[in-house]
Amino acid sequence: MKVLVINAGSSSLKYQVIDMDNEQMLCKGLVERIGDSTRSNICHEKVGMDKKKSVQPIMDHTEALRCVLSVLVDREYGVISDVSEISAVGHRVLHSGEDFTESVVINDEVIAICKKNAVLGPLHMPANISCIESCKEVMPGTPMVAVFDTGFHLTMPQYAYMYAIPYEDYEKLKIRKYGFHGTSHKFVSGVAREYLGEENSARIITCHLGNGSSLAAVKDGKCIDTSMGLTPLEGLVMGTRSGDVDPAVVEFMANSKKKTASEVLTILNKESGFLGIAGESDFREITRMAGEGNERAQLALEMFGYRVRKYIGSYYLALGGLDCLVFTGGIGENSAIGRAEVMKGLETIGIEFDYKKNQKFDRAAVVEMSKPNSKVKVLVIPTNEELVIARDAVRLTTK
Ligand code: AMP
Which of 89, 167, 321, 360 could disulfide-link 144, Cβ–Cβ 3.0 to 4.6 Å? Predict the structure, then answer.
């Protein structure tokens, strides 16, 4: 059974086709700069072949989807001979609001609820909905499933997800913490539980550290707290996002810089984090510059590690101790410097980190990065959000 996984951003569309008989990816690709007639392009990669990039006008997500389907049936680069070979489509949808605690088969009612919740994710939700509607049009009859980025976090207790603002603003406007990267936190915490056994993994902190970063506290497989909030802006220091700031900064910046609140939020989302502190958003650049003695890059690195540690400390108490800490995401999986920066001083909570192994290790489904007698296990687990989406698509459409 072949599943098409779609992950739409405001001007991009990522896709994969996965053969769910053996959970192997057959191809993946990215449509970028949708809406920019001269620079929009599709970059497709069939497993075992070189990437194929073609620049062509792609004006909206429906056109993007048509491009994807046509490359999927291409004689040379394709992986199916007819679109009907796709048994189900799994859509990554940013925001569930409070409506879906689980993935769901998409029907008109689900689409209507997603439209109602679009206000909670104004950049991504319109693209997610438009891809769903395009699929409905272009692949009528193929079942579709929505997998929500917020879904895994909806088990948080109310005292953890509430902001201390007037209660009616929560009731009427649904302003609260939701959290994101849910499929990733779900996947890696699930792998950790399988690896360590449930009795040795009751209390896990998952660190998804990438361009966007978040932590989750997972108790007995369920999320009890997470660092992102109503939007992905809250929490850690990220590539271009500030993470936690005093909300009063918004008015202060707006008045001082003669900007609107929305312009200030653009600064906090797109011009802050590593980029704001050190002029580069990419973590590899930050570590390279820090290594060459650039003080701003060193500061960005320290701020990043310190903020992650502060969250680890608070989740340690929220969980009542810790059995396992998991690193994942582009930085968490690949950057020895990033992991070491986070680990500074964590011996106090029973983590004996193996700094030597951290420097030199071979990627695998699970790598143990703590010393053998460490009370808390530290694991590096490559995330696979597409597989979570494809698994849910199979589970819900073959029932
Ligand atoms: P993601 O958003 O999960 O794709 O992660 C992107 C981030 O991971 C970027 O900041 C990259 O610089 C960082 N990253 C990816 N590969 C490496 C690597 N080998 N070493 C250090 N950082 C990396």
Answer: 89
